[in-house]
Amino acid sequence: MSTAPPRASEALSDQARTVSSVTDRFIAVDVHDVRFPTSDELDGSDAMNPSPDYSAAYVVLRTDSADGLEGHALAFTTGPGNELQIRAVEVLADWVVGRKVEDVLGDLGAFSAELVHDPHLRWLGPEKGVVHMAAGAVINAAWDLRAKRAGQPLWQHLARLEPEELVSLVDFRYLTDALTLREAVEILERARTGRAEREERLLTEGYPAYTTTPGWLGYSDDKLDRLAREAVEQGFTMIKLKVGSNVADDVRRMKVARAAVGDGVRIAVDANQRWDVASAIDWMRALAPYDPYWIEEPTSPDDILGHATIRRAIHPIKVATGEHVANRVVFKQLLQAGAVDIVQIDAARVAGVNENLAVLLLAAKHGIPVCPHAGGVGLCEMVQHLSMLTMSPSRGPGRIASSSTSTISMNISSPRYAWSAAATAPHWPLAGAGKCSPPRWPATAIQTARSGRVAGGERFQQPGA
């Protein structure tokens, strides 16, 4: 049940989002409209989104606690769609403001389930779309605050939880035919061996990454060639190209990319849901001579059987999907149907850390690698914590292929907080050889800076930055 009845006429007002100070309670859910003019240079361009302006509904949970700490997170969107996402987050203030902070942070499994399953909210999905993403942003912000209070980066905070506590965060509704609570605990128990060694290796050697920087669809062949060569020089062993608008253009661009990186570097391709099943199969056969490593989002994220058909037809090219998969149930079905070779979780698409833990455990049960989706403003900084969780002490949930990085992340900097470190430019610590260094400072918060703008063009600087 919800903690407060929905008040549609008040939920968007300041009065509904701020209450009088009472020690250690949530007093506000602030939401900032942050947009980046990525369409100016066609950064982020792909077959389905030819000129996107990457945007974020940036969420700040404020309390009246003497420690002054806040919870930060975002929902990733593009352009005017950000306005809808912001309104959805603002409505959720009724479920947060006035509650004791420790009551929420002490049982984030219950808090997540409350937001996801509240009848008034669930009706609008269920468990998908704008409202589900809004819940994810609020849940992630609560995790950010919890990790700050623990004095740990989120990946480390999660990794050091006991298996039973980690599993208690997962909503097993609709999953028990594929994964039981007992199986999830056993997966994590088996991962205890070598925990300290894995964490030390992560901290000293960094984490493998690939880059999409050369591959945006709107880039010229010369820019593709230059950026692909630079990626190899930086140590990356895989790059990714956007495809799907014109098969002849894609064949030419793959030829350019393969010549630039040589035979020893993988090239993944991403169609961003552009194709029907038959088109996906024919298109990938045309690209096959240039040895694509995977095809990402070849068709609708809801078409489980279509993904399975494509996977069988284009083997040994791998199929990856997940950034637009709405919830853990669809991931379950993709895995049960043998429809994917690589699972791609997204930090901002599903209902936050909790639901992503469910997906990681499902992938582990099925023995399928996980390579998170990132690349949009803030996504690298957020999802890296889930990547690093799977390699560090609690490893069990899935095997990680690599973390995605992108120059789009250069619009987000994190010098003091921690959704950070995954990027292809010197603004973030790279461990060398195409690896990123894990965050070592407390929490997960992203600090928005550089070229961020609120709606209307004003430059946005995160409060407290």
Structure description:
This protein is α/β, with parallel strands linked by helices. The protein folds into two domains: 14-153, Enolase-like, domain 1, CATH 3.30.390; 187-454, TIM Barrel (Alpha-Beta Barrel), CATH 3.20.20.120. The protein has 17 helices and 17 strands. The protein has helices at 14-17, 81-91, 101-105, 108-117, 119-122, 129-150, 154-159, 163-168, 181-190, 195-205, 221-233, 247-261, 277-287, 304-314, 328-336, 352-366, 379-391, and strands at 26-35, 54-63, 71-78, 207-215, 238-242, 266-270, 292-296, 318-321, 342-343, 369-370, 399-400, 403-405, 412-413, 430-432, 435-436, 447-448, 453-454. The strands form four sheets. Strands 4, 5, 6, 7, 8, 9, 12, 14 and 15 form a nine-stranded mixed sheet that branches. Strands 3-2-1-17 form a four-stranded antiparallel sheet. Strand 6, helix 13 (277-287) and strand 7 form a beta-alpha-beta unit. Helix 4 (108-117) packs antiparallel against helix 6 and helix 13 packs parallel to helix 14 (304-314). The radius of gyration is 21 Å and the shape is globular. The two termini are 37 Å apart. Mean pLDDT is 83; it is low at 1-21, 393-430 and 448-465.
In short:
This protein is of the alpha/beta class.
The share of residues in helices is 25-40%
Let me know the average pLDDT. Answer: 83
Named at the architecture level, the CATH assignment of the largest domain is Alpha-Beta Barrel
Number of folding domains? Answer: 2
What is the number of E strands?
17
* Number of distinct helices: 17
Name the assembly state.
single chain
The major sheet is characterized as:
9 strands, mixed
CATH topology of the largest domain: TIM Barrel
CATH homologous group name of the largest domain: Enolase-like C-terminal domain
Rounded to an integer, what's the Rg over CA atoms? 21 Å
Q: Judging from the principal axes of the Cα atoms, what is the shape?
A: globular
Q: Which structural class should the secondary elements be placed in?
A: alpha/beta
Distance between the termini: 37 Å
